[in-house]
Amino acid sequence: METKYFDHTILKADATEAQVAKICEEALENDFASVCVNQYYTKFVAEKLKGSDVKVCTVVGFPLGMSDTRVKAFETKAAIEDGATEVDMVINVGALKDKKYDYVLKDIKTLKEVCGKDVVLKVIIETCLLTEEEKVKACELSKEAGADFVKTSTGFSTGGAKAEDVALMRKTVGDAMGVKASGGIHTAEEAQAMIDAGANRLGTSATLAIIGK
Prior knowledge:
This protein has 213 residues and is α/β, with parallel strands linked by helices. It has 9 helices and 8 strands. The chain has helices at residues 17-30, 42-49, 69-81, 93-97, 101-115, 132-144, 163-173, 188-197, 207-210; strands at residues 6-10, 34-37, 55-60, 86-90, 120-124, 149-151, 178-182, 201-204. Helix 1 runs parallel beside helix 2.
C-alpha cells in the first residue's frame, strides 16, 4: 500500500514528547504523507520533519468544533506560524443540524482564507453524528468554501470512518477535492476498503500495523 496515503496520527490527551518524536521518526522512515498532532506539538513536529516532504498536520477546533470562528481562525494562524502545512478543522455540527448553513460556510471559508493557497485545509464533518442529507450538505458547503479535503471523523465521537460514508463524500465532492477517512482504521483490509470507496488520505495511529511493519 502506497505510504503517502497516511497521516500518521497521535492526538490523545496524554501524548508525551517522546511518543510524538517516535511518530515523527516512523513517518520519516516510511515516507508517510504527514504527522497529525494537537496544536501544542506543531512547532516540535515541524522541527523534527524539517527538510523532509512529510507534512506537518495540526487539528483545529478539535474535537467538538464548537469554538467561535474567531478562535478557530486564531488557532489556525498560530498553527501555520508554528510550521503547520495542513490544517484539519472540525465543523460546528450543531450549527449544521440547525440548518445555519451561512454560519458553517463562513466558518470553513474564514479558515481557508487564513490557510491561503499553500496550506491544505481538511474539513472534519463527523459523519457518525450526521444524517445522509447532512453529510451531503457538509460536503457541499466545504466545497463551496474552497476547502481542499473533507474528512469523516475526529475519532473522538460515537464512531469512525465507514466505507459507505467515504463513497457518499466522494460522490458529493467529485474529483475536485480530497477525501480523508479517519477513526477506527486498524487493519490493511479496513484501509483498502476506504481507498476503494474513494479516500485518498487515511488518518490513523495504527499505520505501522496497516503497512505490515
